[in-house]
Structures are given as C-alpha cells and as structure tokens.
Specification:
Shape: elongated
Pfam families: Response_reg, Trans_reg_C
Number of domains: 2
CATH superfamily of the largest domain: Response regulator
Strand content: 15-25%
Number of strands: 12
InterPro entries: CheY-like_superfamily, OmpR/PhoB-type_DNA-bd, Sig_transdc_resp-reg_C-effctor, Sig_transdc_resp-reg_receiver, WalR-like, WH-like_DNA-bd_sf
Protein name: Response regulator transcription factor
Distance between the termini: 28 Å
Organism: Pseudomarimonas arenosa
Number of helices: 8
GO cellular component, one term: cytosol
Largest sheet: 5 strands, parallel
Structural class: alpha/beta
CATH architecture of the largest domain: 3-Layer(aba) Sandwich
Radius of gyration: 18 Å
Length: 223
C-alpha cells in the first residue's frame, strides 16, 4: 500500500513515515502543497495523509486542485485545526476523512485501510485466494490455516498479487507500489522478493509471464 504523507513538521513527518513503513506501507514524505499535487498527479499512491498548514499551497488548496482534476485519490486530513467549521470545510472540499492532532496511530492506520478498501470496492478487511487469506490489519497471511512468516515487502507483494489474482500484474506496477522514491532498490530486488515468496507458497502459485510480470493462480497447474 503506497501512501503520500504530506507534513511540513520534520520530526512528526519522519516519525509517521517510520511508523507507517513498519505497518507495511510504502510511504513518500512531502513537505509542501505543490509537491503534493504533483506527486498525486504522477504517482501511484493509494491514499494521501494531508496536513492543512502547509507552505506554498495549503492543504485546502491541495484538496481543491486534486478534485478539480477529477482525482479520486482518498485523502485523509491530519491536522491540529479542530474546529467543526474547518472539518466541514475540508470534507466539503473533497477530503474523505479527518483526524485531529494529537491522534492514535492505530486509528490512523484503521482509517487508511478503510479508505483504501472503500476505493477498491471491498467491504471486508481480509483478502483471499483459495486457501490463502490475508489480513492487512493484523499484517498476517495464512494458507490452509497455517501462518506464513513474511517480512514487510513480501507481505505487500503478496497482497498486490492476491488483489490481482488470475490476472498478470506488471513488474512496473509492482515496483511502483513496493518502493518509495528514497528507497535504495537493486536491479533484481523484485525478482528476489518473488523468489522468496515462491518458497513459502504451494508450487506454481506464482506464474511468471516473461517480459510482463507475475500472476497468482489459485490452483497449482491451473491455466
């Protein structure tokens, strides 16, 4: 899950970025409104966490510009401005949710999951493909009831493949969701993660489509 975090407080931004990464998110940290608009236009994020008090363009202007461009990127406003009138204004401008500072990290994560789930048209928190079940809230994957021990990137990779089960997910799409701008990524990093994931799943569940990407199939040997 790739998230744009827009926060000009350096300490808070770095802390949130670290916490969200630990929870399995790929997080790009931005510190001004102009950069936020450009990143939303050209990036592959699934949600934005947006402070209102930003330099260059404030958060309200960011929301208005994105909605004027017909962007459907879920926006969670995270701000110390807690007057009801400001919450109403942000929601009316096109924000999807609002969380005041100070906040509980678990609530922020739950609200993010809900926004991403809603955008994808899912009601359930869990994802499944045959006997494979993923629970992003618990950062847990099970197959035939047995838990798989997956580091953050392998879990994120498996989630993307489960969401696209039966279809080819391109390497470019996987890389865009798995790695942030400041990640040091080797040329074969994705292939290494796929290799490790294959060893933890039944044979032939992950099929390579050469030159394109990968596909998760429910039954080994299925067409």
């Amino acid at each position: 899950m790739r998230v744009l975090l827009v926060e000009d407080d350096a300490s808070l931004g770095a802390g949130l970025q670290t916490a969200l990464r630990s929870a399995g998110y790929t997080v790009d940290l931005l510190t001004d409104g102009n950069a936020a608009v450009l990143a939303a236009e050209h990036g592959h994020a699934e949600a934005m966490v947006l402070d209102l008090g930003l330099p260059r363009l404030d958060g309200m202007q960011v929301i208005q510009r994105l909605r004027a461009q017909a962007s459907d990127l879920p926006i969670l406003v995270l701000t110390a401005r807690d007057r009801v009138s400001e919450r109403v204004a942000a929601l009316d401008a096109g924000a999807d949710d609002f969380l005041g500072k100070p906040f509980d990290l678990s609530e922020l994560q739950a609200r993010l999951r809900a926004l991403i789930r809603r955008r994808a048209g899912r009601r359930s928190e869990t994802l499944s493909c045959g006997s494979l079940v993923l629970d992003p809230a618990k950062f847990e994957a099970r197959i035939d009831g047995q838990r798989l021990e997956l580091p953050r990137r392998e879990f994120a990779l498996l989630r993307l493949l489960v969401e696209g089960a039966g279809r080819v997910v391109s390497k470019d799409a996987l890389q865009q969701h798995l790695y942030g701008w400041d990640d040091d990524v080797g040329s074969n990093a994705l292939e290494v993660h796929v290799h490790h994931l294959r060893k933890k799943l039944p044979n032939d569940w992950i099929r390579t489509v050469r030159g394109v990407g990968y596909m998760l199939i429910e039954q080994p040997g299925a067409a």
